[in-house]
């Protein structure tokens, strides 16, 4: 039996060990649960936006009022759908990149909200809106129910 030279073997093992975390990370996605009405088109568009950004979405077509209350999101930040990702509530048409930032920074908060349904936000940006865009803010809703601007879109 022929012995394998140590140096190429060690280099091969080193490459394998350093590559595995990247391969695993590329194949993982973040789970998010979304509560919405059964016929809401903009909610479905927002869900497609999340999936295109790497989220795995589980949908409940039961409305979102009860879950919004359960997650502690104040009604003044209300919109047509509510989501839960990790320990955070996501209310309305929050861009996926802001959810990803929230999960990276992990602030002590209830979650993120885009109140109402601003045109141009994810899910409210389809052809039926004719490229119209309203400025909007993504709010970080704190546990005392106060909010600060997390990200502005102008």
Describe the structure.
This protein is of the alpha/beta class and 154 residues long. It has four helices and seven strands, in the order αβαβαββαβββ. The chain is globular, with a radius of gyration of 20 Å.
Give average pLDDT, whole number: 88
Strand order of the largest sheet: 2-1-3-4-5-6-7
The shape is globular
Profile the largest sheet: 7 strands, mixed
Radius of gyration (CA) equals 20 Å
Characterize the quaternary organization of these chains: single chain
What's the helix count?
4
Helix/strand/pairing class, anyone? alpha/beta
* Uncertain runs: 9-26
> What string gives the helices and strands in order?
HEHEHEEHEEE
Query: Would you count the extended β strands for me?
Result: 7
* Distance linking N and C termini: 69 Å
Strand content: 25-35%
Proportion of helical residues = 25-40%
Task: Please describe the structure with a list of short key phrases separated by commas or semicolons.
28% strand, single chain, alpha/beta, globular, 154 residues, 4 helices, seven-stranded mixed sheet
Brief summary of the model shown:
The chain has 154 residues and is an alpha/beta fold.
Give the secondary structure arrangement, pairings included.
Blueprint (H helix, E strand, L loop, with lengths): L5 H21 L3 E7 L4 H12 L2 E6 L4 H7 L9 E5 L2 E5 L3 H10 L3 E6 L21 E7 L4 E7 L1
Parallel strand pairs: 1-2, 4-5
Antiparallel strand pairs: 1-3, 3-4, 5-6, 6-7
